[in-house]
Amino acid sequence: MNENTPDTTLAAESYYGRHIFFCLNERKNGEECCAQHKAQEGFDRCKSMVKAAGLAGPGKVRVNKAGCLDRCAAGPVAVVYPEAVWYTFVDTHDIDEIVESHLKNGQVVERLLTPPGVGR
After folding, report:
1. DSSP β-ladder status, 85-88 and 18-23
2. Who's near 100: CB < 8 A, 6+ residues apart?
3. Average confidence (pLDDT) over 83-105
4. Given 11, 25, 92, 94, which is the most exposed site by the fewest CB atoms within 10 A?
């Protein structure tokens, strides 16, 4: 196994090698939220790219919707597990880079990392 391949031992234990969760929370009271920043578009793009690249399925990658991840100030956000890497993205090019670099090749996209202290 190389560094670019999800750990199959971990995948056997957790079913998927990696999960990416997209906050799609929408606040009804007008407060800032990821849904206001095209989070659904990012999710849709990631899901279709992962599937098209053959990265989806058991032992591979699962793209999930999430409610509030409590990092609204950095929104939109997504988090990749098991590495617990938080990303802030603004467009489809950012999603493309996360899929290609991190989900496919295991390389964190440093420029898209959510600053550690940014919360709600």
Report:
1. unpaired
2. none
3. 96
4. 92
